[in-house]
UniProtKB/TrEMBL annotation:
This is Chemotaxis protein. SMART domains: MeTrc (SM00138). The lineage of its organism: Bacteria, Pseudomonadati, Pseudomonadota, Betaproteobacteria, Burkholderiales. Transmembrane segments: none annotated. InterPro entries: Bact_Chemotaxis_MeTrfase, CheR_C, CheR_MeTrfase, CheR_N, SAM-dependent_MTases_sf. One of its GO terms (molecular function) is S-adenosylmethionine-dependent methyltransferase activity. Residues 8-254 form the CheR-type methyltransferase domain.
């Protein structure tokens, strides 16, 4: 018989739970990435997809590969980090950014925006294009942080295929854009990259939301894609980090409203756009 790819087998729940904790500890000890504060259901879903692609039956088998094979470690970490965005892939968020950018940035001497756990270059490019259209980019700094050096290198060297532009144009129009999206891009070999005048306003850095401290004061902080996977304790840690980093009357964009029982609730006013609030104290 030929080779048969092993089918994913359900382990006993208590065994799989133990395997997951051991794998998370291995990722921390071996590579320095701490996912122990993430929701377990989200972690299992993402890791099972990695196992299926690699023909593995248990999390223990995945742990063995992660510890000994760089490619397996890279695949697991990539799955656990924020999935990459594409240009204007969230029309609602783009429209909300158009509405809120002026309220959060006008009047500031040197406005700063933090894209925390940014979903790659195209999320940052989307924001830069919106700010350019709103006449706000020239004086604004965008700080985009990602969780690993590998993601950082990819973001800094990113480009898109010319044949993708028609699809991106349609998403851009759905998000409230007008005119030709291509005017914001220049040729980079056989591919396209965001034009240098826009790229110059984006500063990329590796940053770990789990362990790192506040590094600047921002007029707007956006973290809507990573937070859904955070467990309650990690979420609270990150919300306090954002509070320490947000300027008075700055705008915070989250995946959902701050919980009514949270200690920070009284210091924020909800905005009409879902998940957005303004610091008032």
């Amino acid at each position: 018989m030929g080779n048969v790819t092993p089918m994913l087998r359900e382990a006993a729940p208590e065994v799989e739970a133990l395997e997951l904790e051991l794998l998370l500890e291995a990722l921390l000890q071996r590579y320095g990435y701490d996912f122990r504060g993430h929701e377990r259901a989200a972690l299992r879903r993402k890791l099972r997809a990695v196992m299926q692609r690699r023909g593995l039956r248990t999390l223990s088998q995945l742990q063995d590969r992660v510890l000994h094979e760089p490619a397996a470690a890279s695949a697991a970490l990539r799955a656990l980090h924020v999935p990459p965005a594409t240009l204007f892939d969230d029309p609602d968020e783009a429209r909300q950014l158009r509405q809120l950018a002026g309220a959060g940035l006008r009047g500031a001497a040197l406005p700063r925006i933090w894209l925390a756990d940014c979903a790659g270059a195209e999320q940052a490019w989307t924001l830069a294009i919106i700010l350019a259209e709103e006449g706000l980019l020239e004086q604004t700094e965008i700080h985009a942080t990602v969780a690993s050096d590998e993601l950082l290198a990819e973001a800094q060297d990113a480009s898109i295929a010319p044949e993708s532009m028609a699809r991106y144009q349609a998403a851009y129009v759905r998000s409230g854009g007008q005119g030709e999206l291509s005017r914001f891009f220049t040729a980079s070999g056989k591919r396209l990259a965001l034009a240098a005048p826009l790229r110059s306003h984006i500063t990329w850095a590796q940053y770990n939301l789990v362990t790192d401290a506040s590094f600047n004061e921002f007029n707007m902080i956006v973290c809507r894609r990573a937070l859904p996977d955070f467990g309650p304790l990690l979420r609270q840690r990150v919300l306090h980090l954002f509070h320490a980093s947000l300027a008075p009357f700055g705008i915070l964009g989250l995946d959902r409203a701050i919980d009514a029982t949270d200690a920070l609730t009284a210091q924020y006013a909800e905005m009409p756009q879902p998940g957005w609030c303004r610091r008032i104290a």
